[in-house]
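Thread: "does anyone have the structure for this chain?"

Original post by V.I.:
We have the sequence but no experimental structure in hand. Need at least a predicted one for the grant figures.
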Amino acid sequence: MNWKQLTTHSACLAVAAGVGLNALPAQAERILYVDAAAPGSLPDFFWTDLTTNEYDFISTGSPPPVHVDNAGSSNDYYDIDVMNGFVGIGDESIYDFETEVAGAGMGTPFSINVYLQVTSFIVEGGKVLVVKTDEPGTGQFQGWVYSLNGDKGNRADFFMQPGNNADRMYHRIDDDSGFPGGFVGQDIMVTLTHDGSGSNGGTKQYVNGVEVTIHPYEQDALGGPITNNNQVKIGNNQSFNADVGEDANLYFVEIYDTELTAGEISARWNSGNPTRATVSPDRPSILISTFGRTDDTGLTFTSATGTTYELQSTIGTNPPNWISTGLSQGGTGDSMVLVDPTGFDTGKTYRVITR
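Reply from O.Q.:
Generated one for you, tokens below.
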């Protein structure tokens, strides 16, 4: 199956086995956790959030990221490049981290861990790790960005902008002590923590559990709010241009709604053996999202005998309000087509649930 088929509502539906999540570290404040070792039942197309927020991601790009399933699921990863990545599906407002700059009491602390191996250093190319910005088509965006950097192979950046790149907060590190030759070919966990102040003083970056001192190049003049209505993206981000994703093997991404301590970050790194999820969630549904106009009249997938499938849709996704299209059908083990009786609508997001 190719990516074009997916975006035109044709997908091979894989039914998850009746198994639950393995025990994850007791970190109640984690609000996003996607792990290539437990990606969900359609790993080539969707990356499933393992938290109760169920903020899943759909792969983007042509070709899309490749899920690599190694022996022992804890070694799995996504092979991503500068032209592809993932886009969130769900309540994006969870990750709108406002700062005290926008008003007293509005600051929200948060932290991000990204575990990956950079596979090549691309000058002025590979950058974006995790972002939430609007999409003006230039660098004058509103939102936050966490990235590596195409200027230097051991550099990482975090910045917040209110709609321009003058009134922004920019925090940069060069890990000359830990990785003087750059990150390429090394398994690393890069970590960002922010206290909600909107300042460099409230921001820290770590590599493999070790805090790295801020680089002399920085800006500390955030001048307004940074919230926006766009989804979180992992890898490629069209806010800049078409080729600013990261060329890497991506293991996991997690976001917390608190400022992690140095001890918590060190424990998560676990001397180079961070705990991984190993069992994909047994979700009752798989999201099929509409991107652009389509003339398709049915959603095609391979059904399983003894399983009943129902087609649902929602207009809003923040949060979604799923409503049955009125179509429900028993599986036969063969190809099945579910059709929205009113016709597929590009303004809706569809899902198939199993009964």
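V.I.: this helps a lot. The CA atoms of residues 38 and 280 lie 4 Å apart.
O.Q.: and The first helix runs from residue 3 to 7.
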